[in-house]
Specification:
The protein is of the alpha/beta class and 235 residues long. The protein contains 10 helices and 10 strands.
Length: 235
Amino acid sequence: MAELLKLENVWSGYGEAVVLEDISLTLNEGDSLSLLGRNGMGKTTLLATLMGAASYRSGSMMLAGKDLCKVPAHARAHLGLGWVPQERDIFPSLSVEENLTVVTTPGPWTLEKIYAMFPRLKERRANMGNQLSGGEQQMLAIGRALMLNPKLLLLDEPLEGLAPLIVQELLSIIQQLTEESGMAVILVEQHARQILPLTRQALVLERGRCAFQGQSQTLLDDAELLDSWLGVSAH
């Protein structure tokens, strides 16, 4: 597969504060990455840096051969970045269908395909964004990002605060995205054992630096490694 994303020695943060130090990673087209680490270690900051929402300081970031550092934040979606932030950021006063169609890019992901993946959204297509449950809002946020037909989808803790049944439903959908869509995915999540089976690669951040980078299965198979960085050996 062709190289899609390449970061080399990236430093970034917010204002004067440096959060990420010397981060390098490579992701090919259609590949998937679990981005792991305890709270406050820089996971969300890395996604925000890609989207232009954090203060980039140095290093290089290339997406599909284009220099991301030179692209303003508002234009990065047009390059092929789809972002589902923790806050979901759906439009509360727009209907489900309006949320999905307000910004679209031609490609395989259409309204019909989103409704096929998320039948609940089709049932509630006339409901306003603020009339949805937390799980439905998360589905809508993912669906809206897919309607941009991104080359790389960034998912920031998509399972946070959701009921167990909704979590299982979303895990199944994320598995479809990582295995069948042909789209690259970076997935941030606290529950390592839930998401590592869904991705091929894993990167662990420890105090803003890369503590581990390799195959997801390597982490899954090594309880001591998981426990040392994430404290999840008993989960």
